[in-house]
Design a protein that fits this description.
It is a single chain. Helix content is 0%, strand content 48%. With 129 residues, the chain is mainly β. The strands form 2 sheets. Strands 2, 4, 5, 6, 9, 10 and 11 form a 7-stranded mixed sheet that branches. A 4-stranded antiparallel sheet has the order 1-3-8-7, with no helix packed on it.
Length: 129
């Protein structure tokens, strides 16, 4: 299993960025999650998508501003981040859950974090005020 992230950077508040996570080595049903961690804070589950059914999840802090999607042909998951705020500043990680159960309705990504056993290297997102 391999996860390679790209797309971080510096942006002004109100701007947009798109993160990419190229995934390889998974089976037919898996989930890709995006997590973030700011200095001195716990890792937060931001969004996830399940490969088989396409169901998605967003944390309350990003709902309505971030959109997760996937390109099956390229085995790549995208996180489109709009209306960025300084509070969105963090290192963003994509992670893989080989069961798919880590992204489903009624469950927060934080509760399912233990299912994500492969992680990318992280990409820095900095939002300037």
């Amino acid at each position: 299993v391999q996860l390679v992230e790209s797309g971080g950077g510096l942006v002004q508040a109100g701007g947009s960025l798109r993160l990419s996570c190229a995934a390889s080595g998974f089976g037919d049903d898996y989930a890709i999650g995006w997590f973030r961690q700011a200095p001195g804070q716990e890792r937060e589950g931001v969004s996830c998508i399940r490969s088989r059914f396409g169901n998605t999840y967003y944390s309350d802090s990003v709902k309505g501003r971030f959109t997760i999607s996937k390109d099956n042909a390229k085995n790549t998951v995208f996180l489109q981040m709009n209306s960025l705020k300084p509070d969105d500043t963090a290192v963003y990680y994509c992670a893989g859950d080989p069961t798919g159960f880590g992204c489903q309705a009624g469950s927060t990504l934080r509760a399912a974090m233990w299912l994500y056993n492969s992680w990318g290297q992280g990409t820095q997102v900095t939002v300037a005020s």
